Amino acid sequence: MGFNWLDWIIVLAYLLGITLFGLHFRKKQQSMHTYFLGGKTVPAWALALSIVGTETSTLTIISTPGIAFAGNLSFLQLIMGYLVGRVIISLILIPAYFKGEMYTAYELMQRRFGPRVKHATASMFLVTRALAEGVRVFAIAIVVGIVLGSGDIWSILIISALTLIYTFQGGFTAVIWTDVVQLGIYLGCTAITFFVILGLIPNGWEGVMAAAGPKFAVWNFSPDISIPYTFWAGIIGGAFLTTASHGVDQLIVQRLLAAKTERDSKIALLSSGVIVLLQFTLFLVIGIMLYSFYHYRPDLAAPAAADRIFPDFIVNYLPHGVRGIMVAAILAAAMSNLSSALNAMASTTVVDFVRPFVKADLSAASQLRISRWFTVFWGVALAALAVLSRGVGSVLEAGLTIASITYGSMLGVFLLGVLTKRANERGAILGMAVGLVSMLGVWAASDIAFTWYVLVGTVITFATGYGASLLSARNPA
After folding, report:
1. Is the dihedral of CA 111, 116, 119, 125 positive or negative?
2. How much is the pTM?
3. Which of 159, 223, 331, 369 has an alpha carbon within 20 to 30 A of 415's alpha carbon?
4. Which among 152, 104, 30, 146 is positioned nearest to 351, based on CA atoms?
5. Structure-derived torsion over alpha carbons of residues 16, 17, 21, 26, reported in degrees to the nearest 10
6. Radius of gyration for the chain, computed over Cα atoms and rounded to the nearest angstrom
7. What residues does each domain of the chain span?
């Protein structure tokens, strides 16, 4: 039960190794162009792996098995929508981003509508990302709390500090290449865990199927919009969710902008979708295998909270050494996501809010220094929000819900700018406001599943913004 000296050596070696690896890239940082875009020298395959590492957090690893443990594979319907959303982004948004060099997604809004819309969308990104990342960083405490036997918030502070060190020094280049390493670590470790669990189940895979065969059901064609994982919510809602999260959220868009060419950007995004589908399938199947494990061991009680089922199994039932590797893998996912968020939020703050209001002749060294200190600011802010996030339910669904409430307004105004010529700044601002207020109402007073939030918010924002633009054009102030 618990950790031994071998497990601790593995975890500490990982934390030290990944921090030193990230620091290795500090000499490459010469300006904002390298600090926020990596000098546009990163190959497409590395960007693809970084996209996967960025959208995969500790939430994914600890919560996804719990979803299948309590249900089935219906969550995969949402992942299929993620693939559709990537195609939409490649056709509509990426071409717009490569019409001139941009550092952030929100510069596109300034070119189309003006500074007010840019500031509105950038502000919405920062608030949304800060709240969602706070929940994600809190997920670290779930794992370390189980390892230590207590909910120790020092885990949040230690992981945040180590991630901040190499992100502060190495910038976007360090973020990308540590993402690649960390993705390899947690996927490799999860695969090892798969076979370890399989070996603990009588008759192996036949035993899994005998105990949990019905849990391999994927499809649910129910038209009930209160059910989050149906075919319709997955394909349609998931497509809109991904179009927003990967098409207008700087966390992912930063990687699309850092590609050498538009073609590389599309290749990175589309290929990442295939990896994500395989990854989520692995995590969900592990959840079903854990259900089978406890089915054959009625003397063992599974944790009541779904988010604790996988971490509890890792710490209590995996062999020593393997459990240390797996905890290191979970921390790898946490650090990968956090480093990406820090760099993306710093880039948005500096490019969209600070740089327009300072002297145009600010030196490259000064811009780099400002960028680094805003990375520190967001590191402290996210750690504080993580501490305040304790007590949420499913951390995966909490993170997705927070983002889904605001994503509709952001995606709606981006589509207004890209797909229409008659929409104007006044209409765009009104559309965003109405869309956001409407989604807060939907969240607070309806039974609509969160998987539909982005679609509803996008339609309201787009329709209101376009209608208001036509009216204001006819009746100029």
Report:
1. negative
2. 0.91
3. 223
4. 104
5. 10
6. 22
7. 5-391
The single residue listed with the structure tokens 């929100």 is 106
Place of tokens 């199927």: 209
Quote the tokens at residue 179: 């993402």
Burial of 303 (0-12, 13-18, 19+ CB in 10 A): middle
Q: Say which residues have a Cβ less than 8 Å from residue 299's Cβ, sequence separation at least 6.
A: none
Tens of pLDDT along the chain (477 residues) come to 567 889 889 988 998 999 999 998 988 888 888 999 998 999 999 999 999 988 887 778 888 999 999 999 999 999 999 999 999 999 999 999 999 889 999 999 999 999 999 999 999 999 888 888 877 777 776 666 666 554 557 777 888 898 999 999 999 999 999 999 989 988 998 898 999 999 999 999 999 999 999 999 999 999 999 999 999 999 999 999 999 999 999 999 999 999 999 999 999 999 999 999 999 999 999 999 999 999 999 999 888 888 789 988 888 888 888 888 888 888 888 888 889 999 999 999 999 999 888 766 677 888 889 999 999 999 999 888 887 766 555 555 566 677 778 999 999 999 999 999 999 999 999 999 999 999 999 988 989 988 999 999 999 999 999 999 999 877 655
Q: Identity (one letter) of the amino acid at 91?
A: L
CATH number of the structural domain 5-391:
1.20.1730.10
Nearest Cα to Cα of residue 402 among 164, 241, 225, 277: 241
Q: What's the one-letter identity of residue 257?
A: L
Name the token pair of 310. 């996988």
